[in-house]
Design brief:
The complex is a heterotrimer of chains A (about 325), B (about 325) and C (about 425). With about 325 residues, chain A is an all-alpha fold. Chain A is built from 13 helices and 2 strands. Chain A has one domain: ABC transporter involved in vitamin B12 uptake, BtuC (Orthogonal Bundle). Chain A has a two-stranded antiparallel sheet with strand order 1-2. In chain A, a hairpin with a 2-residue loop joins strand 1 and strand 2. In chain A, helix 3 crosses helix 11 and helix 12 packs across helix 13. The N and C termini of chain A lie far apart (about 45 Å). Chain B contains 14 helices and 2 strands. The longest helix of chain B is centred in the last third of the chain and has 27 residues. Chain C is of the alpha/beta class and about 425 residues long. Chain C has 14 helices and 14 strands. In chain C, strands 7-6-8-9-10-13-14 form a 7-stranded mixed beta sheet, with helices on both faces. Chain C has a 5-stranded parallel beta sheet with strand order 2-1-3-4-5, with helices on both faces. The longest helix of chain C is centred in the first third of the chain and has 24 residues. Chain C is globular and about 65 Å long. The N and C termini of chain C lie far apart (about 75 Å). Classes of the chains: A mainly alpha (about 325), B mainly alpha (about 325), C alpha/beta (about 425). Chains B and C meet through helix 2 and helix 9 of B and strand 2, helix 3, helix 5 and helix 7 of C.
Chain lengths: ~325, ~325, ~425
Amino acid sequence: MDGLGRGDRHPGRFFIATQAAERGIQVRMFSFELLLDAVVLGLLVGCFYAAVSIGLSVSFGLLDVPHVAHPAFLVLASYGAYILNQNGVDPIIAGLMLMPLFFVFGLFAYRLYYETFERRGGDAGVRGIAFFFGVAFVIEVVIILVFGVDQRSVHALYIGKSIDVGDMRIPLRLLVAFGVALTLTAALALYLARTFTGRAIRAVAQDELALRLMGANPIAIKQWAFGIATAVLGPAGALLIIVAPVDPTLDRAYIGRTFCVVVMAGLGSMSGTLIAGIILGVVESIVLTLYGASWAPAISFAMLLAVLAVRPQGLMGR
Amino acid sequence: MQQAERGWIFWTAAALFVGAAAFATLAIKNEYPFFAGYLILQFMVLATAWNILGGYAGYVNFGTSAFFGLGVYTAVFLFKATGAPLLVQIAAAAAVGALLGFLVGLLTLRMRGIFFSIATIALTIIIETFIINWKFVGGATGMPMIRPPATAPFDSYIKMLFVNGAVMVVIAVALARFIQGSWIGRGLRALRDDELAAACSGVPTLKLKLLACVISGALMCAAGAPNAMYLSFADPASAFNLNYSVSALAMSLIGGTSHWIGPVLGALLLGSTQQLLTVTISSEVNVLVLGLMLILFVVGAPEGLLGLFRRMRARFSGDAGGRA
Amino acid sequence: MKRRSILAALGLLLAAPLCTSTAIAQQPIKIGMSMPATGGLAAGGKSSLIGIEIWRDDINAKGGLLGRKVELVVYDDKSSAAESPAIYAKLVDIDKVDLLFAPYASVQTAPILPFVKERGLVLIGNFSFQVNAKVQHDMWFNNAPWGPPDSWAASFIDIGTKAGAKSIAILAADQEFAQNVAKTTKAVASARSIPIVYEQNYPPNTVEFSAMIRALKAAKPDMVFVASYPPDSVGILRAVNEIGVGDNVKIFGGGMVGLQFASNLESMGALLNGVINYNSWLPEPSMFFDGTKEFFAKYAPRATEAKVDPLGYYLAPFGYAMGQMVEAAVNATKGFDQKAIAKYLRENEHKTIVGPIAFSPDGERKVSATLQAQYRGVVDKNLEQFKTAGKQVILFPENVKTGEVIVPFEKARK
């Protein structure tokens, strides 16, 4: 395939296209412009993946909670944003408004988890996973009973519009995703590095016993951290419903993606989550443009396996 | 002596089980119990297989759907390409499953527990993507299949599948029982408790893990093969449904992971409940029940039904400090 | 207190034989089916079921079928193929229903066809696509607007070529229904020597379509045929509005499932304008038949209360039509002999609230009634507008056409 520039109708293309169509081969256009577009769009989508995974980076990455209900909480936040949006609130603002509510929810959830599992010791692992699956299913059903099974979307000024950057057209809502992801990552990274509680959280992730010996209460710190991880889902959930419509069973599609990003990032690394999300988004985008979207999931997850096999602690893990 | 006695009891029970299944096919005219019963038997095999790796060794496999779906498509491929009979399809699926289990075991050697689980999620998606893109077995379009007539002495295909399922349960349980009672089981339990310590004490952890992966994988794949004929239809979304992964895990946990009978009980309880709900209340309540059962059991009965039985037995035999 | 309840129980026990003897004489007619109430297809399934229930209530109000009350036996198949065999075995062997309806959608229907063929039972399909192609059951009647498999794609491509389109791009979900439709589109395109300049299948759960639309635009197609499922349909339209598909595109759409549902119509609003999409029923003057208006008057309040699609244009009226056809067949054959009912359904044209329906030997409709309609003048956040004519102008078939196509696509979007 010759690299074709935009704007000229190459006569040879017609011939190649019919031949390929007859043989049932997918016709793929290659041009550097397309590739650049794919990379840029992939970067923005990757930021979206990072934003929806970053809460998990804290709850699973730092606190070792096998939080498979994270996507279910995310979808719950989306519906929260939906309700507020029906009353005229911009989705991002709605997401911010949900943060305090979800923070308290997180505190409570962790308390429940701790009392049930970590306190009693033993192999909390499998049972913890099963517990969170149970929670995820219950949340799904509650959403169905309250909202029905139809898809829901939000309205905002930036949905459906795009801006022209040079030769490229970039959807505004992806730029919003980009902005939110960067803000969340930066905020969390700064919090964990600079504030007292933030550093206490990182300390408890590294060595709980040592922290206890130093007189701090690790359980309270972990509870606080889980609260933050859940609060972050407020804006992330709003982002989810901005980018695409949501339905009650959407959480099942995101379990794989979010864990993939968090594990590839290296447990507990905020900047790693952003990078891993971006890599995932870009790779998916390029594969889609060059080889066909059908292979994109295989490539993304094969990448995860490769990272795990070669560097089990993740890209930026300790 | 006790071991030999228990073996005798086990095999008699197994023979009775299969005999009862065969007798049911003669005695019951309605086909519904066989359609529903087949699913319960299928889940018994899946849960038992899962438990070999998940319960005995402590490696939580989220990729049950991957193996199951692969079993379905091995059967589809063989049937389309050669018209192979059911038993050949199952045997081939077991072989494929064993191979995949071996590869997965090798690949995840260095991974800590939870990373293994995530790797299995990745595996499911990768395999599903390959199947979606494989036109010969139908790809995303799905592949309808016409069942051949049932082989004698069965007069209907579903009855044949049902008895076949019962035999598969016996095979799976026999394998699990063998592993549990042998040095393999002891080694797996050691590495579940503390892998490093076990390795240092001379337990061949690598070989044991691989063995568990291979056997578990073979059984899960084999459980998937008859499903293609059960539905007379295969499509990737159904074959690789996350539901299989969650159910295998849930059933083992609910039944109890320390003994081979746990998954069987769990599959019986959860499977029957689900089938019953499907034809009674039949709505989103099904999912709610699954969720609530999971939560209640992991919170209230950490060792599943078996743990509950033990506790009850301890209480009744007046054992104040019984193992609970 | 205890004595009273024992007496009450005894009383009921004694009365029971009385009830059963009269009950036997008036045993209800049972129509059995599974319907997705949970899972991805639930939105459609619930709407379809309400349509069938309205028919049941109507006919019971008229005194029932053959003087007997009609009862629906419905189970949730969770939008999954795995549940169907057991459910239909129960319906036939234990519930002993008199007639079977298939569930909404192809995936759950495919496993039951061999079963009903083996048992020699009539099965009325519900919006499946080409499920009987391999099994060839001779008592299958698919209640859906599409007829011969190629007719759907052909109708779209015809509109395009008449407007001067010379090439086509195909975007399809990696999913059973979408792939089947896309296959027919490819077949029609090659048969007419129309080059396919871009072809893309995308995996389920794809969230972002910007890159794909970008690549599609670069291929400069004249027509774009999209076979997508509800979540993707919305994502694709958004990307199209943001990135644009290029000025060459004459027509866009064709096989996007999900754009028929009220919640998406409302949330998409003006983004829909210009798209030509398939539909089964629209509130255009040519689509009102005997009883149609009354049906929708009954549907709206029930759907709103059940939190289901309040418009219900896509599936619900066809659910009612299923009932009407069965009513006609049973009244004509005065019983439930499956062969007689099949013969009646095959040989007659049936008058329903969605128009006349006739079946060809393979069980699909003789003549395609799949509408291709173009969205015009749709505004945001207004569900009521869709109840009026003129928002979705029907371009095909000829006998119900209500307007001419506006091309090119970019022009029609304004």
